[in-house]
Automatic annotation (TrEMBL):
SUPFAM superfamilies listed in its UniProt record: CBD9-like
Domain DOMON residue range list: 70-175
InterPro entries referenced in this protein's UniProt entry, alphabetically: Cellobiose_DH-like_cyt (IPR015920), Cyt_b561/ferric_Rdtase_TM (IPR006593), DOMON_domain (IPR005018), DUF2427 (IPR018825)
Every Cytochrome b561 domain range: 254-375
Entry GO terms, CC: membrane
Stretches the record annotates as Disordered: 458-477
Residues spanning the signal sequence: 1-23
Location(s), subcellular: Membrane
Taxonomic placement: Eukaryota, Fungi, Dikarya, Ascomycota, Pezizomycotina
Alphabetical keyword list: Electron transport, Membrane, Signal, Transmembrane, Transmembrane helix, Transport
Name of the protein in question: Cytochrome b561 domain-containing protein
Record Pfam families: CDH-cyt, DUF2427
Organism: Hortaea werneckii EXF-2000
Segments crossing the lipid bilayer: 250-273, 280-300, 320-343, 355-373, 385-405
Length: 477
């Protein structure tokens, strides 16, 4: 019969065969270690226990509530340049992957260091530690555990470990409750939900040889009564949380909301207003509101872009298309205004109005596609489903309204010279005018002119039927 320990012995044998380092590192329950444990204001548990070895290795146990998309610790007192160990759930959702990273370039997210430097830091997960039987696994509703050895990890960041320090600074952070499951060491991270500092006493946690490694996880508090609880851990040889910050990425939802509102709602509504109210004024007001949304949304987008390595160079499809759309929105606004001014003077359709009418729908279409690219860039791929549904529903409503307005406002398409005159009696006194066969355009002109009850201006352009710019030209302010 296989008992748990038989399994461990077997596993250890297999692992030590494939990786000789394990054979050299028997568990030493008395290895010196320091423990830092805290519960964040968002009720997430975060614990890190480390045993430092003077050769640069770090034996590390770290865990957090499984709800956190990632959790990590860094050496030093600031994020910029700090060497870090960051862990998150594996693709299967039950494993935990840990990668060695460094935050380069201001305050953007830590990126994996790669494995091209043979002397660079290397993280090796340890599964065989009898003190951590569920090492490197995540339990739904419980905790996720990263447990392993980081080789050559003491000095790859901007701050080296000082083994004599009683207050060696560290930083830690947990990621927001968003879906992140990846086997890749360079999996993209979302901005932290909580971060802070702490210090550890290196003199109680440093070993002189690599033959001993830290006994982890951190001790349960006496209140746990010997049971292994997921939340009760004690700090030992370390400070409390220093300078903890709740953080949120408000700019991302704000950017998305403003851009989506502008392109899904405001701009299409503004286009319809021209038809419904026959008012350039309200059309202009709506589109200027839309442009203001886009302006603020753009500012937030640029601000966001600096947060992530993936967006810092402004070379993602979403950003490039977004910049083009942003510039074109202003061209479109300019065209609208110029056309309006010219039209008021000349009452003539110009190439400008045609461009304006062509560019508007194109711009909206491109922006709707760009929204989808945005969700992809932000790793919120699944948000594209509700987004797509909303866009489809709005598109159907918009197109229906547009078609309905088109038919309602197009008496010229009746082709009066081919229909029984009876049909026109309902139109009132003007019907007599069309008894003489005339061009559809001029008949429509008479209708509009003489019926009076309908918008007069709307009829004057009937000769342009089939011409996209009819509505824009039709209106008066
Ligand atoms: C003009 C039309 C644009 C639309 C419709 C749009 C829409 C969106 C949407 C829906 C998201 C996803 C938000 C989420 O997942 O909650 C997003 C993310 C983002 N957008 Fe835009 N956006 C536009 C333009 C821009 C521009 C011009 C920039 C910057 C130059 C930009 C930069 C970003 C960045 C950096 C993200 C986050 C990416 C990440 O988290 O990695 N966007 N956008
Ligand atoms: C955290 O947990 C405590 C006790 O379990 C509860 O009173 C508090 O409301 C929780 N806070 C949050 C933000 O969930
Ligand atoms: C899940 O993935 C991790 C990392 O790839 C692996 O170590 C672990 O064995 C996997 N667990 C299961 C149940 O497949
Ligand atoms: C650690 O770095 C030293 C030199 O600094 C190098 O000799 C050694 O091979 C490295 N170890 C690993 C595991 O990369
Ligand atoms: C490690 O060596 C240093 C001096 O090299 C000594 O001060 C320290 O006590 C030693 N630590 C342990 C745990 O043996
Ligand atoms: C950061 O992103 C750029 C692309 O924008 C990429 O070429 C580079 O390798 C990334 N840096 C790291 C350290 O991953």
């Amino acid at each position: 019969m296989f008992t748990q320990s038989t399994v461990f012995v077997l596993l250890a044998a297999i692992l030590s065969y494939s990786n000789p380092s394990f054979a050299l590192n028997p568990v030493d329950p008395n290895a010196p270690a320091a423990y830092f444990a805290t519960t964040t204001p968002t009720n997430a548990t975060y614990v890190v226990a480390m045993n430092f070895v003077r050769n640069g290795d770090i034996y590390i146990h770290m865990h957090s509530s499984t709800s956190c998309s990632w959790f990590g610790v860094g050496i030093g007192d600031q994020m910029d340049g700090a060497g870090m160990m960051i862990a998150y759930k594996a693709t299967n959702g039950t494993g935990v992957v840990t990668s060695v990273r460094r935050a380069s370039g201001g305050r953007s997210e830590p990126v994996w260091l790669g494995d091209h430097d043979p002397e660079g830091p290397r993280y090796e997960a340890i599964f065989t530690d009898q003190y951590a039987p569920v090492a490197n696994t995540a339990k739904k509703g419980g905790i996720q555990i990263s447990h392993g050895l980081c080789r050559n990890c003491s000095s790859f960041g901007s701050m080296k470990l000082d083994y004599t320090s009683k207050q060696q600074p560290f930083i830690f952070a947990i990621g927001p409750d968003s879906k992140l499951e990846s086997d890749e060491l360079d999996a993209p991270l979302r901005r932290h939900e909580f971060y802070g500092h702490f210090t550890m006493d290196m003199t109680v946690s440093t070993s002189n040889a690599s033959t001993t490694y830290g006994r982890v996880p951190a001790p349960n508090l006496p209140e746990a009564n010997g049971a292994v609880a997921d939340s009760l851990f004690a700090t030992q040889g370390a400070s409390e949380v220093l300078d903890g910050h709740e953080d949120s990425e408000w700019a991302l939802p704000a950017h998305a909301a403003l851009m989506c509102l502008a392109f899904v709602l405001v701009f299409p509504m503004g286009a319809l207003l021209l038809e419904i109210l026959q008012s350039v004024l309200w059309h202009g007001v709506a589109q200027i509101v839309g442009v203001l949304f886009v302006l603020v949304g753009f500012g937030l987008g640029v601000h966001l872009s600096h947060h992530y390595n993936r967006s810092r160079n402004f070379n993602s499809g979403h950003q490039v298309l977004g910049l083009i759309i942003f510039a074109t929105v202003f061209i479109q606004l300019g065209l609208g205004v110029i056309h309006h001014v010219i039209y008021r003077r000349t009452k003539q359709s110009t190439i400008i109005s045609k461009t304006h009418l062509f560019l508007g729908p194109l711009l909206i279409l491109l922006a709707l596609i760009n929204g989808g690219l945005g969700f992809d860039l932000a790793q919120n791929h699944h948000d594209n489903i509700p987004y797509g549904i909303v866009v489809a529903v709005v598109a159907i409503i918009f197109l229906t309204a547009r078609l309905w307005l088109l038919f309602k406002r197009r008496p010229s398409s009746y082709q009066p010279d081919r229909e029984s005159l009876e049909a026109y009696k309902t139109f009132g006194p003007g019907y007599q005018d069309i008894q003489t066969p005339v061009s559809a355009g001029s008949a429509a002109h008479h209708f509009g002119f003489e019926m009076g009850t309908h918008n007069t201006a709307g009829r004057q352009l009937a000769p342009h039927r089939g011409d996209m710019n009819r509505p824009a030209l039709a209106v008066k302010t």
